[in-house]
Amino acid sequence: MRSIPFFFTGAILAPLVSGLGFTESDVSLADRDIATFEDVAFGDAVLAKLSPRNTGAGSSPRCKAFPTDNAWPSEQKWSKLNESVGGALLKPLPAAAVCYGNSPAFNAAACNFLLTNASSTTFYLDDPLTILSQWAQGNTCPAARNTTGSTCTQGGFPVYVVNATSVKQVQAAVNFARNNNVRLVIKNTGHDSVGRNAGGGSLSVWTHYLKGFEFLPQYTQPGGNYRGPAARVGSGLQVFEAFANAEKYNVTLTAASCLTIGSYGGWITGGGHSPLASKFGLGVDQVLSLQVVTADGRLVTADPRTNEDLFFALRGGGGSTYGIITSAIVKSHPQINLTIASFTFTLGSTASTTPGPAVTITNSTAFWKGFDAVFAYGIPTVDAGGYLWTNGINLGAGSFTMQTRAQMPGLTPAQATTFIQPLLTTLNALGIPVTIDTPSTVVYSSQRGPLGAAPGNSRFASRIFPRAAYQNATLFAATMAAARATVEAGYVFHGLNMAPTYKAGGFSAPAGVNPVWRTAVMHADVFDSFNIGTATPAEATAAHVRLDALMGPLRVATPGGGAYLNEADVQEPDWQHSFYGSNYEKLVRIKRARDPWGVFWAPATPGSESWAVQTPNEIPSQNGRLCRV
Ligand SMILES: Cc1cc2nc3c(=O)[nH]c(=O)nc-3n(C[C@H](O)[C@H](O)[C@H](O)COP(=O)(O)OP(=O)(O)OC[C@H]3O[C@@H](n4cnc5c(N)ncnc54)[C@H](O)[C@@H]3O)c2cc1C
Ligand SMILES: *[C@@H]1O[C@H](CO)[C@@H](O)[C@H](O)[C@H]1NC(C)=O
Ligand SMILES: *[C@@H]1O[C@H](CO)[C@@H](O)[C@H](O)[C@H]1NC(C)=O
Ligand SMILES: *[C@@H]1O[C@H](CO)[C@@H](O)[C@H](O)[C@H]1NC(C)=O
Ligand SMILES: *[C@@H]1O[C@H](CO)[C@@H](O)[C@H](O)[C@H]1NC(C)=O
Ligand SMILES: *[C@@H]1O[C@H](CO)[C@@H](O)[C@H](O)[C@H]1NC(C)=O
Ligand SMILES: *[C@@H]1O[C@H](CO)[C@@H](O)[C@H](O)[C@H]1NC(C)=O
Ligand SMILES: *[C@@H]1O[C@H](CO)[C@@H](O)[C@H](O)[C@H]1NC(C)=O
Ligand SMILES: *[C@@H]1O[C@H](CO)[C@@H](O)[C@H](O)[C@H]1NC(C)=O
């Protein structure tokens, strides 16, 4: 039997088997643990800054070690790391390896499950490697029925994964990667759309099972202005799990709309919007305190009093950059209902009938005037604390549809009906005879639903719309013309009107999130249906050029705007300021001070320009070796 490192014995075993037990002091990596395996020794950022290329394993070569290199750690070293993490080290093959006749994992029944049923289950979300944006991995092992003649390779997937359930395992992984010049990545649920959750030739810290939860009825934020109910959450908790806990305590924990997202990994480090954004602010505004494993391997607290630089950067300054959050303390709000009034109107086709009552018209002028009128109603919606969800969709053959959901937290159905009436009156006067049914209402935390997910293979871009531009008649007209152009060109224009102001966010401590959010009245995605999986790299590049060309007029019409880094084009022009605004330079300084080694790296995050992935083609994937530039 393998030897059990002594820090995994005795009393500290309980938190490990029950998930993150919030007793970090008991389960932290101690100096005595390192005595038996020096590869997991802590780093010293101060020394490293003095001589960044002469610390850690002795030197920092131009590239991270790759499995084909002599510098790649030996099997024995990986096996010792496995002991240090209590046997939680995985060396997984891509999930779809079961579809490849020339793979040792080939299994026709398992492949059939992937192709028929996996997307309606949590299979992919519980897989240690899978990310939901397949092109970002390099698309080197797609699930397919006939893979004759093709080979499944690891591509942009990590080589090893630590399936973490304790702080100590996270620390051991960070130290091992830093000391061996191995690329480190962090994956939580895999929702990131540009590959910030993957990396070729890497060790991955998989935070999915850091699932702790504790309700704190009376919490006082150290050095901050919050005093009241809060919750302590493991960073692997998904939205549906956070909601279930919140419902149990009859409170509200603000979280993303998609129930399978990780609320306390990518969502809070990227910004985090929700249907409650106009009422309670962004994800970053929910955070009161963080427990973080930094690049030196140490576990630290970050709050307005301690490590304020990390507290700033980790709230909106990008995931996978400054450290690995193991748990967070977040605000708990009183229970609130989410009330939704929905309708759809369609030009020239009866095909699309959701959500809500649907009407079909034949007057194109009326349709596009109605399209503008719905977006104009974004202002009253956000001013009433709401979140206006819309989709403009091209149905083909000259048909278009506009799907609308006014999500109004805290209103009763009767109040929501009254609220939406002026918009319906405007649309009716244009010749669009829309009506609504009685708005639905649910306790926000009671939302549940199917938890399925499967990788997709397309790209998109986005924009944040400042109020000053949106309320300027000239610029609004230009914005609507640009939005219409995306729909006419076959893209989906997905609007989310919200106003996550400082006031809504509760005047929380300064945050690294792009300040443009504070004056925003909409964030919108422009989704491309172009399938990168079946295209040549040149065709994929041409598709990106077409998408970016359509974004140009939207950017011009929204001076002072930006883009939401979590729903974004990784090739966004001047992504530094588009994603992080005026905070960018400060975030880079924090990154350099906290991680002089470059332990953490992910595309389009602060300081990431110093490195690049050497990809086999022009698609900006994680399939390749990470090198300094
Ligand atoms: C279908 C869908 C719907 C979405 N809806 C919304 C929405 O309603 N609102 C919204 O704001 N966003 C939404 N998003 C975007 C989503 O919030 C981001 O993709 C987010 O980054 C996901 O975080 P994750 O931790 O679940 O995913 P991952 O992809 O696993 O991680 C995302 C990033 O965070 C890093 N990270 C994860 N955990 C940690 C940690 N503990 N410490 C440090 N870094 C970490 C990862 O390395 C990666 O860079 C949606 C995305 C999808 C695909
Ligand atoms: C790590 O150890 C566990 C338990 O002994 C074992 O099941 C697992 O296969 C090991 N991982 C690797 C990558 O060898
Ligand atoms: C897929 O699900 C259907 C029911 O939805 C079931 O009948 C079928 O057996 C499942 N197939 C596999 C391969 O699991
Ligand atoms: C599978 O793919 C190969 C190579 O693309 C092709 O020659 C063959 O006809 C395909 N078989 C089936 C059953 O589709
Ligand atoms: C990861 O760890 C969790 C918690 O111990 C366990 O339930 C799960 O099966 C593990 N996953 C893999 C792929 O080993
Ligand atoms: C839940 O909280 C709401 C809002 O604070 C309150 O009105 C309601 O009475 C509470 N319900 C229970 C069962 O405590
Ligand atoms: C089409 O709708 C516009 C806007 O409501 C209206 O001015 C115009 O008269 C309509 N045209 C027809 C033919 O009904
Ligand atoms: C909140 O929603 C529930 C149904 O989920 C409903 O019973 C309740 O009346 C609603 N509360 C308000 C204030 O509308
Ligand atoms: C609207 O924007 C345009 C273009 O930026 C600007 O010239 C004009 O002064 C603005 N109008 C108002 C009323 O602010």
TrEMBL record:
Residues 1-19 form the signal peptide. Residues 154-335 form the FAD-binding PCMH-type domain. GO terms for molecular function: FAD binding; oxidoreductase activity. The keyword Oxidoreductase applies. It holds the Pfam family BBE. The keyword GTP-binding does not apply. Keywords: Oxidoreductase, Signal. Belongs to the oxygen-dependent FAD-linked oxidoreductase family. This is FAD-binding PCMH-type domain-containing protein. The lineage of its organism: Eukaryota, Fungi, Dikarya, Ascomycota, Pezizomycotina.
